[in-house]
């Protein structure tokens, strides 16, 4: 795991606790753009465990789903444009 | 012969690199991602199935971290950490040391005074509400949640129940308790994004839609008798005020006016809340 990836993952987790949600979302996006980063799911799940209110009658766990979707939809972009395959 | 050897070495190198590439790109990372996705889906699915039981077990472990984060941010923000560096460099060294010592002492007093003042403000709410509720500290950031929720440092061991109403100083409703653990509770704010609440201001009733950060908006007929600064009350919270009308925007071409309802207190300054039993 590269230093940048580790840094972004740690920042993402810290932002879940103290920063506005858009900063967490930026970390999720940055990680998903560059790497096939399973830790994005951890960040999403962490946000939902901490902040999602009550039962699921309130809605859906948006952050986990967002991280999952971003991770999936950015796969072709990662493959074709951004990622040096040896570094995935 | 030499050329043949060289080219076969080259081929071997290429082959080895490709072999590595295939292994690196296809098997391990994808497997890891698949396992992580599967795990997350299983956890979320189980949580749905068990009505949030997994979250309510894990959340208490995360509350101290959230509480620490809030204190750390408040401490950094209160230390003029981001002020002009040049101004700090110009200070005399010995004076600075002395000031720092005095500031450390002063910070202790200030913290105590702030606590005292915050509690005194809450006591005013307590007097209004009678003896039926309890005071609890805020244990998390107000702005970190994408769902308009925050955590308070009191749970069912202190008698907090789901549906209890959470008031700030001045008696304004901040939200309602949506999940209770032993020593902490999750509160959903009235102005949580997308949350709709039936309210009344003066003699006009309308529905506000939360936008997060202590703001909400609503559309009312242009003729409605509403005034900026007027309190807005919600019957679901037993007629208590939930905010004030911030501004009213109306275009002459439209039959409706858009009003903005705001929470009158800066959320970052709220440190204690008062919890009263709700209807549920």
Gap between N and C termini of chain A, in Å?
A: 9 Å
Oligomer: heterodimer
- Known CATH architecture of the domain at 196-262 in chain B: Beta Barrel
Mean pLDDT of chain B: 78
Structural write-up:
The complex is a heterodimer of chains A (88) and B (280). By secondary structure, chain A is mainly α. Helix content of chain A is 72%, strand content 0%. Chain A has one domain (3-87). Chain A is built from five helices and no strands. The mean pLDDT of chain A is 83. Chain B is an alpha+beta fold. Chain B has a domain at 196-262: Beta Barrel (Thrombin, subunit H). In chain B, the strands form two sheets. A six-stranded antiparallel sheet of chain B has the order 1-12-3-4-5-2, covered by helices on one side. A six-stranded antiparallel beta barrel of chain B has the order 6-7-8-11-10-9. In chain B, strand 4 (173-180) and strand 5 form a beta hairpin. The N and C termini of chain B lie far apart (90 Å). Chains A and B meet through helix 1, helix 3 and helix 4 of A and helix 1 and helix 2 of B.
Fill in the keyword field for this structure.
A: 88 residues, mainly alpha, B: 280 residues, alpha+beta, Thrombin, subunit H, six-stranded antiparallel beta sheet, 4 helices, 12 strands
Helices, strands, pairings?
The complex is a heterodimer of chains A (88) and B (280).
Chain A: H1 3-18, H2 21-34, H3 39-51, H4 62-73, H5 75-82
Helix pairs in contact in A: 1-2, 1-3, 2-4, 3-4
Chain B: H1 2-49, H2 53-77, H3 85-89, H4 93-129, E1 134-137, E2 149-152, E3 165-167, E4 173-180, E5 185-189, E6 196-201, E7 204-212, E8 215-221, E9 231-234, E10 240-250, E11 256-262, E12 272-276
Put the structure in a nutshell.
Chain A is mainly alpha-helical and 88 residues long. Chain A contains 5 helices and no strands. The longest helix of chain A is centred in the first third of the chain and has 16 residues, at 3-18.
């Amino acid at each position: 795991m590269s230093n940048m990836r580790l840094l972004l993952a740690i920042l993402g987790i810290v932002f879940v606790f103290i920063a506005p949600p858009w900063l967490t979302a930026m970390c999720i996006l940055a990680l998903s753009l560059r790497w096939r980063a399973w830790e994005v799911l951890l960040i999403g799940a962490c946000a939902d465990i901490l902040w999602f209110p009550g039962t699921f009658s309130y809605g859906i766990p948006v952050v986990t789903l967002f991280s999952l979707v971003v991770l999936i939809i950015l796969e072709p972009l990662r493959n074709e444009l951004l990622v040096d395959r040896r570094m995935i | 012969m030499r050329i043949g050897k060289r080219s076969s070495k080259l081929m071997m190198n290429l082959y080895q690199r490709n072999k590595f590439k295939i292994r690196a790109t296809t098997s391990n990372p994808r497997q890891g991602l698949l396992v992580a996705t599967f795990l997350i889906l299983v956890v979320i699915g189980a949580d749905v199935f068990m009505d949030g039981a997994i979250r309510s077990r894990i959340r208490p472990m995360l509350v101290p971290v959230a509480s620490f984060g809030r204190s750390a941010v408040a401490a950094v923000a209160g230390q003029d950490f981001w002020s002009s560096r040049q101004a700090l460099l110009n200070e005399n060294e010995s004076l600075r040391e002395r000031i720092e010592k005095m500031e450390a002492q002063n910070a202790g007093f200030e913290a105590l005074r702030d606590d005292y003042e915050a509690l005194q403000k809450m006591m005013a709410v307590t007097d209004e509400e009678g003896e039926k509720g309890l005071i609890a500290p805020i244990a998390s950031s107000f702005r970190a949640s994408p769902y308009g929720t925050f955590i308070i440092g009191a749970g069912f061991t202190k008698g907090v129940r789901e549906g209890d109403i959470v008031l700030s100083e001045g008696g304004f409703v901040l939200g309602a308790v949506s999940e209770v653990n032993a020593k902490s509770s999750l509160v959903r704010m009235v102005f949580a994004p997308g949350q709709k609440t039936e309210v009344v201001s003066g003699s006009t009733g309308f529905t506000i839609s939360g936008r997060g950060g202590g703001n909400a908006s609503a559309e009312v007929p242009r003729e409605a008798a509403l005034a900026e600064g007027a309190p807005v009350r919600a019957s679901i919270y037993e007629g208590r005020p939930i905010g004030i009308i911030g501004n009213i925007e109306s275009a002459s071409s439209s039959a409706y006016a858009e009003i903005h309802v705001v929470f009158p207190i800066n959320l970052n300054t709220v440190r204690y809340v008062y919890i009263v039993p709700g209807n549920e």
